[in-house]
Write a structure and sequence with these properties.
By secondary structure, the chain is an alpha+beta fold. Helix content is 36%, strand content 22%. It is built from 6 helices and 8 strands, in the order αβββαβααβαβββα. Strands 3-2-1-4-8-5 form a 6-stranded antiparallel beta sheet, sandwiched between helices. A two-stranded antiparallel ribbon has the order 6-7. A hairpin with a 5-residue loop joins strand 6 and strand 7. Helix 1 crosses helix 4 and helix 3 packs antiparallel against helix 4. The chain is globular and about 55 Å long. It starts with a helix and ends in a 13-residue tail after the last helix. The model has no long low-confidence stretch (mean pLDDT 90).
């Protein structure tokens, strides 16, 4: 059934992957803030441990668009929850794949300047408050690709992602298991990856 749904998603153009990103120079760092060269201040206790002055921050927003989300809603409305759940999973995997490709693109660009990239960090991860999401959306710019935020910082379309990547020399990277280990949902998450 999953193969059939993948084919259907492709034929119906339910996936419209698009991303926006912009790279900024870090002009100043404190224990809980980063100042970018355009004057924007990002509050985070984690990012300053990753970056120093004269390094860079790539700000990324990506989405697969609203088509698949609408189809998922229609499936649940028609009493087809399995189909809806499978399509929803396909959408989540598609967003993940899209963000990985954007990260690879940025890594290639950074390598051309003899830099490395960090692993991606998203608002809501430990040390990076979800309240910083609106700032990232202005920096990326998310509006140009049709992604917006609700007042509670939920992305619309829902199958969207935002993240930042450090660019410089000797950037830190981590595995998904290491991210899971420091997440506040560690004890209850069904999707936790163990080392």
């Amino acid at each position: 059934m999953t193969d059939k749904l993948l084919s259907e998603a492709s034929q119906l153009s339910l996936l419209e992957p698009v991303a926006a990103y912009k790279i900024y120079h870090v002009s100043r760092v404190s224990h809980d803030r980063l100042w970018l060269d355009n004057g924007t201040v990002i509050r985070s206790t984690f990012l300053p441990t990753l970056l120093s002055e004269r390094q860079e921050l790539a700000v990324i927003v990506a989405t697969i668009g609203p088509g698949l989300e609408k189809q998922v809603t229609d499936c649940f409305s028609r009493g087809e929850p399995l189909r809806g759940a499978l399509l929803d999973g396909i959408g989540s995997a598609a967003v993940d794949s899209l963000t990985q490709e954007v990260c690879k693109l940025i890594a290639v660009e950074a390598a051309s300047r003899s830099y490395q990239v960090s692993s991606p960090i998203s608002p809501g991860m430990p040390g990076f408050p979800i309240a910083e999401q609106p700032r990232l959306f202005k920096l990326a710019p998310a509006q140009e690709i049709g992604v917006s935020l609700t007042s509670s910082c939920v992305m619309i379309p829902r199958k969207s992602a935002s993240m930042v990547i450090g660019i410089g020399s000797q950037m830190k990277t981590w595995t998904q298991a290491e991210v899971c280990a420091c997440c506040h949902l560690n004890s209850t998450c069904l999707y936790k990856i163990h080392a």
